[in-house]
Design brief:
It is a single chain. The protein has helices at about 15-20, 30-50, 70-80, 80-90, 105-115, 120-150, 180-185, 185-190, and strands spanning about 5-10, 55-60, 95-100, 155-160, 175. By secondary structure, it is an alpha/beta fold. The chain has one domain (about 5-190). A 5-stranded parallel sheet has the order 3-2-4-1-5, sandwiched between helices.
Length: about 200
């Protein structure tokens, strides 16, 4: 009997809807919105073309707190972005969207980032904490996936470009990626001048 688990890794290009109140103060390239929309259209098409029993799939999302199911459902319903519209599609297909991140770490990062936008001292404090905070978030996400993805199960992970979750997943989880992520994303990242963590463990 097959027991190996699989995870479809989808790097996230955050839209203004994902950024909430920070959207208007974080600088972006002029055509950022158009490129983000182009990327998510391709990701959406890739998933919709799959023939799969989505009822058996777990979906994980960076920025989505590991908290009560009703709060997770409300966040998914409220965020207006291509990423979250896809989460709503998954939920509509019967997939389980799992609260993924430590809410305490999420709140810490939000407060640091918000303060750093206008304050130099806060910007330095965020820079000093950013790497360790990202590592702690990644460890929590990897543990959360390991604990909730069943034997022989399939998951989908939406996670930002700077994260390195795939490097620290349990050894029995095989990571794959979408055609759009392999073929389209690199050119968009170069066009927008975005730096990203080196992908690891992808098949």
């Amino acid at each position: 009997m097959r027991t190996e688990r699989s995870l479809i890794y989808v790097p996230v290009l955050h839209s203004s809807g994902d950024m909430g109140s920070l959207a208007g103060v974080i600088p972006q390239p002029a055509d950022y919105g158009a490129q983000v929309g182009r990327y998510w259209d391709a990701v959406d098409a890739d998933f919709r073309a799959m023939r799969r029993r989505w009822q058996e799939v777990r979906v994980y999302q960076d920025g989505l707190p590991d908290t009560r199911a009703d709060i997770v459902a409300r966040i998914i319903a409220d965020v207006d972005s291509p990423n979250y519209r896809l989460l709503r599609w998954f939920a509509g297909q019967g997939a389980m969207v799992v609260g993924t991140e430590d809410p305490i770490l999420l709140q810490e990062e939000y407060e640091l980032l918000k303060a750093s936008v206008t304050d130099e001292a806060a910007r330095q404090a965020y820079a000093a904490r950013a790497t360790g905070l990202l590592e702690n978030r990644d460890r929590y996400i990897a543990t959360r996936i390991g604990d909730t993805l069943p034997s022989a199960g399939t998951g989908v992970l939406f996670v930002g470009l700077q994260h390195e979750v795939t490097r620290i997943l349990p050894a029995d989880i095989k990571v794959t990626s979408l055609r759009s992520c392999q073929e389209l994303l690199p050119s968009i990242v170069r066009k927008l001048g975005i730096t990203r963590a080196k992908p690891g463990g992808q098949g």
